[in-house]
Fold:
Amino acid sequence: MTGAVHRQVTIVTGGSRGIGAATVELLAAAGHSLIIGYANDEKAAERSAAAARRLGAQRLIVKADVSTEAGAEALFAAAVEHFGVVTGLVNNAGLTAHIGDLADTPVQVIRRVIDVNLVGAVLCSRRAAQLMSTRRGGGGGAIVNVSSAAATLGSAHEYVHYAAAKAGVDALTVGLARELAAEGVRVNAVAPGTVRTDIHAAAGDPDRVERIAARIPLGRAAEPTEIAPAIRWLLSDEARYVTGATIRVAGGL
Ligand code: NAP
Structure:
């Protein structure tokens, strides 16, 4: 896509680290202007922005908790203020936070995981729909939700509440895709399997990736750079006839 008319301005929530940072790099290389959302780790967000800058992309970092209405609003307000438009949203911010049986999981952990992974995606998608829908005066666009293979596997003994949140993300994808299909906005999802990022250590299990590699049909976990291309493609004009789809990038899981 070239020219001002087709300029792509994309918000990547959780764009500071892991899958989000890999996505920022690929989108920067593809010519997107980027809003890189993060929650706490400003240095990581600045590293991600520096990578985008080296690739020639316009970019800014925005500290915003996606689980709040104010956080979702801040991302879009920054995009409109700096770039004048928003054409893409990657709902990537997420966490697992804790590993164990549901019976042993603190209620506040359950609420946080559902708030960030599901409510965050719903709130950001709501704001995207308000701004992008051609029926509401927007110019159209595309949303990609980062779901998980957990949504269909259920994640017994690890985090069934996280799996339930991601199944909610899959329902959001199908429903909103149909709601916005005639309004110029496509909505799709990517469902990774196990990816080598900080998410596992942050949940207290830094060795999880190695431990479960043997259970993955392709025999290993993915790198973030192996997830990001599906996200970039779903945002691109090549995917213009694709909506309501979830692309599983899970090594056979
Ligand atoms: P990660 O490396 O731990 O990075 C998480 C990102 O989300 C960081 O940028 C973090 O910001 C941001 N974030 C966390 N809570 C947030 C909040 N409340 N508001 C805004 N941003 C927030 O995670 P990852 O593994 O790349 O995961 C990215 C997505 O992929 C998640 O939705 C996850 O569920 C999904 N996924 C991951 C795997 C896997 O095995 N890694 C598998 C399937 C699906 P800070 O840097 O400021 O903390």
Q: What stands out?
A: The domain at 9-249 is CATH 3.40.50.720 (Rossmann fold).
